[in-house]
Write a structure and sequence with these properties.
alpha/beta, Adenylosuccinate Synthetase, Chain A, domain 3, Adenylosuccinate Synthetase, subunit A, domain 2, 4-stranded mixed β-sheet, globular
Length: about 425
């Protein structure tokens, strides 16, 4: 049975949580492989909204083992609070596994994230101020602290003492901020250890064991392809690898274990924070998309920037992720429009691009080239079969399939789980 990766094809917020929730009944394990609490999934079940930031959305199902893998950076304060909140809603958390190799987001990471962004001013990247970037920086510099260090507070103290010598010098001498106290952090993290120690284990072994046993394992990425550290719109990116290949590194599995990659694309395009966005719209179009699509960040609450569907982004995402099928979300939001646009190319002066430009300066200055479609202006929120969609909506979907070169297998026509058209048997294709 397959190892399946679910990856965003845009700048995140594509609706990956709903796809995870839709396929969860057939899964044995759901693995979060990168990012931190800078990401979030919103899932609607029986008209109840559940927002999760660190815990995989598969935790809703008692038959699923949810895993926070080694590629994730874990803020233990946030995780403990999230687990407590889930338990108040009578959602079991006892099956959760946390990688012993996952790095911790420390208090100084959050502070540094905030002050560095403030210092950048108008050139800021638009981070969530959650400390994710600084945590990944320490990981790469081999000075990070991992979850397994919580299990030996002597080692934790030694590593923290070394880290604070550097971090306090930066905080006090560069930013004029009061130094953090070693004992205060030790006391705080001791309390987290009591809550989390039972979850910490070798998750790579557990994931591979499940795959070898023929169980269905779903790898759940956060953010999206164009926030990838290597393949995104650098420097306006996240600090990890949301692309499908990141699942192998971030979960400790071989590429040969991945059988299917589902790319999730919103029927229009959004992004949060700074950075280029060729198909961005201002005024009425943006306002309609934002209002009807409820386009506000799950983690930050910030209003998302909105624009028409960008098929050039999709083509690149299909290429770098090896996407085998697509899930197209929020198609119902476009029901408001008389005309619907799809960006099929970019123009920069006399140069035309039918693929993602090779230089970031080009991308910053590109103007989209659109293909326009008749809108359907009908309520499709109760449609359950593809052939029942208005012909105009089918034309839109089939154009996306044609450009992407892969089938659209899932079409979301509303926020509820049952407001979904499934065109094929996902697991058998």
């Amino acid at each position: 049975m397959p190892g399946i990766v679910c990856v965003g094809t845009q700048w995140g917020d594509e609706g990956k949580g709903k796809v995870t929730d839709l396929l969860a009944p057939d899964m044995h394990m759901v693995v979060r492989y990168q990012g931190g609490n800078n990401a979030g999934h919103t899932i609607v079940v029986d008209k109840q909204k559940l927002k999760v930031h660190l815990v995989p959305s598969g935790i809703l199902y008692s038959h699923i083992t949810p895993v926070i893998a080694n590629g994730v950076v874990v803020d233990p304060k946030v995780l403990v609070e999230e687990l407590a909140e889930l338990e108040t809603q009578e959602i079991r958390t006892d099956k959760l596994l946390i990688s012993n190799n996952a790095h911790l987001v420390m208090p100084y990471h959050r502070i540094l994230d905030q002050v560095k962004e403030r210092k950048l001013g108008r050139s800021k990247i638009g981070t969530t101020h959650k400390g994710i970037g600084p945590a990944y920086s320490d990981k790469a510099a081999r000075s990070g602290i991992r979850t397994q260090d919580l299990l030996d507070m002597k080692i934790f103290r030694e590593k923290l003492k070394q880290a604070l010598e550097e971090k306090n010098a930066i905080l006090t001498k560069i930013y004029g901020i009061e130094a953090l106290k070693l004992d205060d952090i030790i006391t705080e993290f001791n309390s987290y250890t009591k809550e989390l120690k039972g979850y910490i284990t070798d998750t790579s072994f557990a994931i591979n064991e499940a795959l070898i046993a023929g169980k269905n394992v779903f790898f759940e990425g956060a953010q999206g392809t164009f926030l990838d550290l290597d393949h995104g719109t650098y420097p306006y990116v996240t600090s990890s690898s949301p692309v499908a290949g990141g699942a192998c590194i971030g979960a400790g599995v071989a590429p040969s274990r991945i059988n299917k990659v589902i790319g999730v694309a919103k029927a229009y395009t959004t992004r949060v924070g700074s950075g280029p966005f060729p198909t961005e719209e201002k005024g009425d179009v943006c306002d309609t998309l934002r209002e009807k699509g409820v386009e506000f960040g799950t983690t930050t609450g910030r209003a998302r920037r909105c624009g028409w569907f960008d098929a050039i982004l999709l083509k690149y995402a299909v290429l770098v992720n090896g996407i085998t099928s697509l899930a197209l979300t929020k198609v119902d939001v476009l029901s408001e429009f008389e005309k619907v646009k799809v960006g099929t190319g970019y123009r920069l002066g006399d140069t035309y691009f039918d693929r993602f430009p090779p230089h970031q300066s080009f991308f910053h200055k590109c103007v989209p080239v659109y293909e326009e479609f008749e809108g359907w202006q009908a309520d499709i929120s109760h449609v359950s079969r593809y052939n029942e969609l208005p012909s105009q909506a089918r034309n839109f979907v089939e154009k996306i399939e044609e450009i992407a070169g892969v089938p659209v297998e899932i079409i979301s026509v509303g926020p509820e789980r049952n407001q979904t058209i499934v065109r094929d048997k996902i697991l058998s294709s």
